[in-house]
Amino acid sequence: MVIDQAIIDRAGRVLVARKSVLDDYTIEALKKMGVPGVYIREGEEEAQEEEKPAPLPPAMQQKFEKECVADRSKVKLSESVRKRVEEGIKYLYQDVGSPDFTDATKTVTNDLMKAIDDNDAVAVDISALKVSDEYTFKHSVDVATMSMIVAKRYGFNEKQVYEIGISGLLHDIGKSQIPNEVLNKAGKLTDEEFAVMKQHSVFGYRILSKKDDLSNDIKLGVLQHHEKLNGKGYPLGVAMPKINIFARVISVADIYDALVTERPYKKPFSPRDAVEMIMSMTSELDVEVMRCFMESVILYPVGTDVALSNGENARVVENSPLTALRPKVLGLTTGRVYDLANDLGCANIIIL
User: Domain boundaries in the chain?
Assistant: First the structure.
């Protein structure tokens, strides 16, 4: 049997690679880790082609082009940058005691900062980043990039934007200190194991506390990114006045990316559901940061096909930074333009 999924631990390390042959040794190892079952391949793997919107009839295409308003400038990572970033993050997580640790961190952050500056980016399409298939590396870059864009919107200066990129990259670095029996467990953690896992932000802070060339804001962003404004977070249980602004920004990006990413122990939420969940967390998350996040993330890029709750399929023609969940769309059957944010006649229509 050939496994058709990667088995990944909570630190993002691949324990069994996709397309591996499942021999008896591997099967027994998976059982010991609490994995109850895996997907296997049947038949030959079909070549994956990038999905492109279906061509429209000429009259509908003309209307689409007339209504179409290009998205705000988004972060774009070239293939060479993706490769450098992935290799850099792998290096960081493999050797936190390296004398080159800070330099390597700054090199990766410089690449991300340059990608933002080169594109004059003010928004991020999270589905387009795709730095790596390995969760921790992808998650680190997603969180760092989103945090930098949100920080710009919030009003951070260039130095602060750069530093929050470093903090976002390293926010989970403490997972490198979690015992393997907890990290490698693909099944549900016990209460005791989860208590250990929750210490990763403390471990990360301890790793960075020895780095005199990293600012206190960077270190507090790592320590406090799981704290909540109502004092019900961890590891310290501190409330709003004592939570660093870096941590408050990283927290929103971290939660969103974790919600929309598939993991061995959970299904992904849709971007819309993830945003709505974040919007409901007003007692836990900084409302101003939430607003900046909503104005920075593009959920439905222009040209994306979506299904509407009235039964019609539509194509996105315009986004507004104030209404990420409700873009303007063109109905592909009727040719009607649905301004979901501003037209009261569309108030009962949502994107499915």
Answer: 57-70+301-352, 79-294
Q: Please tell me the predicted confidence (pLDDT) of residue 83.
A: 79
Long-range Cβ pairs for the range 53-59 (8 Å, 24+)? 53/303, 53/304, 53/305, 53/315, 54/305, 56/315, 56/332, 59/335
Q: Report the 10 Å Cβ neighbour count for 276.
A: 12
**Alpha-carbon gap, residue 271 to 276, rounded angstroms:** 9
pLDDT at position 24 is 83
The mean predicted confidence, pLDDT, of the chain is 88
Q: What are 72's two structure tokens?
A: 């705000």
Task: Output 315 or 90, whichever has higher pLDDT.
Answer: 315
Query: Which residues, at least 6 apart from 109, have a Cβ–Cβ distance to it below 8 Å?
Result: 144, 162, 165, 166, 169
Condensed to tens digits (0 to 9), the pLDDT of residues 149-190 reads 999 999 999 999 999 999 999 999 998 898 878 876 777 789
Sign of the C-alpha dihedral computed for residues 206, 208, 214 and 218 taken in this order: negative
Spatial separation of the C-alpha atoms in residues 145 and 126, rounded to whole Å: 9
Total number of residues shown for the chain: 352
Radius of gyration of the chain, Cα coordinates, nearest whole angstrom: 22
Closest C-alpha among 299, 348, 346 to residue 325: 299
* pTM across the whole model: 0.81
CA angle centred on 84, ends 78 and 86, rounded to 5°: 100
**CB neighbourhood size of 219 (10 A):** 21
> Domain 79-294 falls in which CATH fold?
Hypothetical protein af1432 (1.10.3210)
Mean pLDDT of 230-246: 96
d(CA 323, CA 299): 10
What are the residues whose beta carbons fall under 8 Å from the beta carbon of 12, sequence distance 6 or more? 93, 134, 135, 136, 137, 138, 139, 175
Can you list the pairs that 205-210 forms with residues at least 24 positions away whose Cβ atoms lie under 8 Å? 205/174, 206/174, 207/96, 207/173, 207/174, 207/176, 207/177, 208/170, 208/173
Whole-number pLDDT of residue 265 = 67
